[in-house]
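Q: Joint fold for the lines below.
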Amino acid sequence: MRIVKNTGAKIAAVLIAFLFQITVKAQTMNTNSNQNTTSVFPKGDLAPPEYFTGTAWVKTLVANDDTLTTIISNVVFEPGARNNWHIHPAGQILICTEGIGYFQEKGKAIQTLHAGDVVKILPGVEHWHGASHTSRFTHIAINVNTEKGVVNWLMPVTDVEYSNK
Amino acid sequence: MRIVKNTGAKIAAVLIAFLFQITVKAQTMNTNSNQNTTSVFPKGDLAPPEYFTGTAWVKTLVANDDTLTTIISNVVFEPGARNNWHIHPAGQILICTEGIGYFQEKGKAIQTLHAGDVVKILPGVEHWHGASHTSRFTHIAINVNTEKGVVNWLMPVTDVEYSNK
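A: Joint structure:
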């Protein structure tokens, strides 16, 4: 019976070691997958605090030029972060790629955004966008027809306005 | 000792069950992470065979309109798939989001593309893009200034041209 006891204990010990290994592997896989989803693009530079509340990161993917007249940026908002109210004279398109975000046009309710959502913002429409209270949010922002203007920044989105969700 | 034996066996049984659960969880996490990276957008429709070689999928994210004058599509190329030689009268921007792809301008060498790469295609430049031989490839394609035209399709990329990589 001693042997049996030892065998049982050894099986348990081996399984514990294997279990630990699997658990570590699972965590590694999760980390890798997060890197895949969050790091298709580098985080870029801190968003300018005069136009953003909280922490956000902007990576320019396409700089403006006279031929394509388009600016494309990848923007990562930490939870609670958002940009000021603003207007795009030529409009903008948001392609949401990760997390949960908010979008609001002046006078309308805050909308919740998820990965895969696409938002068309028409020229002249006052609005803001950012992360939800508890989740990071990433979108690609596409400013088209930049010869007509890019952005006019307005007032910050107050905590009261943001909490209206 | 009978108790000890039973305890050892029970520990082993519980650990085996727990181990199985963890393994299943790890697989689920992996599946989910793949979904995140490959399925931010639905696959969409099969790309038209008259303009593509092999299997590709096109999901329109933004349809054309007179205000934003922009078309955005998510395109998934299965390994070996590519579009025909073609020209965009107003240019196009590719944002590579997954896998390994190829891009070639007429008269130049084939370039390899990876997730995170961005390609600016100038108006009038004859070119093609697609997956590498062995990896699926996904990009977001952005046609700007569509009032100047969207695409002029030309000849298929032959196996000889494609294999020149």
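Q: Anything notable?
A: The longest strand of chain A covers residues 92-105. Chain A touches chain B through 50 residues (CB under 8 Å).
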